[in-house]
């Protein structure tokens, strides 16, 4: 039944999306907000299922050259694991120190780790992007992000 890699991956994605949708339907509903917290997760879950179905019926076959491209060198695997560790640390710190501070630390550390050495640009992006996102979500969209240690 599952002959191609695309079919195997699509089945995994459909199961993952089903679990994701189950969890998004269990999110707490908040009164008096124009866009509830489950709106975007539900859209993303259904979109993932639709795209996975398209992937399942994709007729393209994998060549030997494409199979070789899937082999990830050990050095790059360590980089992927390190960035994954930073993502988990970001998620862990998000509620504790808040969206703005954890995002600043994550953007700066990840950019620096991946080799971007323009310090002024990195600091500007690491400071301005989370601040703009936080202010946009909290005050324009009225979607509350974790405040953490900051007083606003």
Automatic annotation (TrEMBL):
InterPro entries: DUF1468. Keywords: Membrane, Transmembrane, Transmembrane helix. Coiled coil: none annotated. The keyword Transmembrane applies. It comes from the Bacteria. The keyword Heme does not apply. The chain crosses the membrane at residues 9-27, 39-57, 78-107, 119-141. Residues 10-146 form the DUF1468 domain. This is Putative tricarboxylic transport membrane protein. The lineage of its organism: Bacteria, Bacillati, Bacillota, Bacilli, Bacillales.
